[in-house]
Amino acid sequence: MLITTDGVVLRERTQGEIDKFIDVLTDDMGIISICVKGGRKLSSKNSSATQLFSYSKFCYNQKGERNILNSSEIISSFFNISSDIEGLALASYYSELLRYSSLENIPSTNVKRLLLNCLYYLDNKERSVEFLKLLFEFRLVCEIGLIPNLIGCCECYEFQSNSMYFDILNGKLYCSECFDKELDYHTIRISDSELHVLRHIALTDFNRLFNFKISDELQSSVGKITEKYTLAHFDHDFKTLKYYKSIKT
Questions:
Q1: Is residue 105 within 8 Å of residue 29, measured between CB atoms?
Q2: Can you tell me the distance from the alpha carbon of 215 to that of 110, in angstroms, rounded to the nearest whole number?
Q3: CB of 132 within 8 A of CB of 226?
Q4: Strand partners, 126
Q5: What span, in angstroms and rounded, lies between the C-alpha atoms of 228 and 210?
Q6: Which residue in 206, 46, 36 sits closest to 112, CA to CA?
Q7: What is the pLDDT of residue 249?
Q8: Is the dihedral of CA 225, 231, 237, 239 positive or negative?
Q9: Strand locations in 54-117 (E)
Q10: How many other β-carbons are positioned within 10 Å of the β-carbon of residue 105?
Q11: Which pLDDT score is estimated for 185?
Q12: Residue 104's pLDDT is what?
């Protein structure tokens, strides 16, 4: 059966001397694996469309449990990302997060849209890598069902108080009156500004998701929160994150 879809290449894996497999994030099937016959040859007609982070249209056959590429057509290469070490490191972190998100055979339209937007901004250098990191990782966990309760205090429903506390492990918000000082170390105090940014990323629609700017100081503090929340709920040691942080220091 011949199937046509478009998607973003998240990973390339070698197969034999000249073939390769690619993991592709699609709208309707989530992440799928496609075998590219002769894909490692420089002369391959599918070379550019099947490169890492390329956004392409794929036409493939299903043969048993394998998907075999028939033809491909590149839509966007995001070429500039590969020439920037920070951008490439961040895009690699995106890829590892996505591949660890169990998106196989799950409709992923919003997730793909999030990835494409972040890759576009990375490619054009229109937003900082730090901003795109915190936005992607926090919106991703929200899109895959790990959205925290940021509307108000989980006990009294207070929307905002002088001090709010975020239970990262359980995804709950507490006001200063309801906060239990004996809560474990996963609970942190967050400012009004930090809470506002988190609410925007988690709850706003895609058309307005990128329509805000924050100071470098706020970007740094929110970035620490989104990273803590992501790592706490994935419970995984991401090698690409370690590499990204190593080149930032």
A1: yes
A2: 27
A3: no
A4: none
A5: 21
A6: 206
A7: 65
A8: negative
A9: 55-63, 66-76
A10: 11
A11: 67
A12: 87
